[in-house]
């Protein structure tokens, strides 16, 4: 993450390289969510230890609205990949927001 003025930007590095210096940043919600297509053609996203399908379970031809809750907090500087982030390390309160998938436009947006 990077803060520039009042804009928060997220690293575009692949997940395997998140602890390395970022090559580029983006403030778009799509920087936090990567859509994958399963073997059966179902678009889905990985979220934590879960996989979430973008298709409506009742009508597999329609996409569904998805709201993912996210919290961002700032911690004291640590060794990347070697230290755990805990609430004791936080130097700020958590800022909560949502990333919302709009099935009509098939786009991700930020929400409250």
Write a compact overview of the structure shown:
With 112 residues, the chain is an all-beta fold. The protein has strands spanning 2-4, 7-11, 25-26, 35-37, 43-47, 50-53, 66-72, 95-102, 107-111.
Question: What secondary-structure arrangement, pairings included, does this model have?
Answer:
Blueprint: E1 2-4, E2 7-11, E3 25-26, E4 35-37, E5 43-47, E6 50-53, E7 66-72, E8 95-102, E9 107-111
Antiparallel strand pairs: 1-2, 2-3, 4-5, 5-6, 7-8, 8-9
Give a written overview of the molecule:
The chain is built from no helices and nine strands. It is mostly beta strands. 4% of the residues are buried. It is 0% helix and 38% strand. It has one domain. The strands form three sheets. A three-stranded antiparallel beta sheet has the order 1-2-3, with no helix packed on it. The chain has a three-stranded antiparallel beta sheet with strand order 4-5-6, with no helix packed on it. The protein is elongated and about 45 Å long.
Question: Poorly predicted ranges (pLDDT <50, ≥5 residues)?
Answer: none
Shape: elongated
Strand order of the largest sheet: 1-2-3
| Beta-strand percentage range | 35-45%
Rg? 16 Å
| Nearest-integer average pLDDT | 86
What is the H/E string? EEEEEEEEE
Structural class by helix and strand composition: mainly beta
């Amino acid at each position: 993450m990077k803060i520039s003025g009042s804009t928060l930007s997220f690293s575009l590095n692949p997940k395997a390289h998140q602890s390395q210096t970022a090559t580029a940043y983006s403030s778009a919600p799509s920087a936090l969510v990567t859509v994958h297509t399963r073997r059966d053609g179902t678009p889905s996203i990985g979220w934590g230890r879960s996989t979430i399908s973008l298709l409506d379970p009742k009508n597999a031809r329609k996409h569904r609205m998805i709201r993912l809750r996210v919290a961002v907090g700032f911690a004291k500087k640590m060794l990347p990949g070697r230290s755990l982030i805990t609430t004791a390390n936080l130097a700020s309160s958590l800022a909560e927001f949502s990333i919302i998938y709009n099935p009509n436009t098939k786009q991700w947006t930020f929400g409250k």
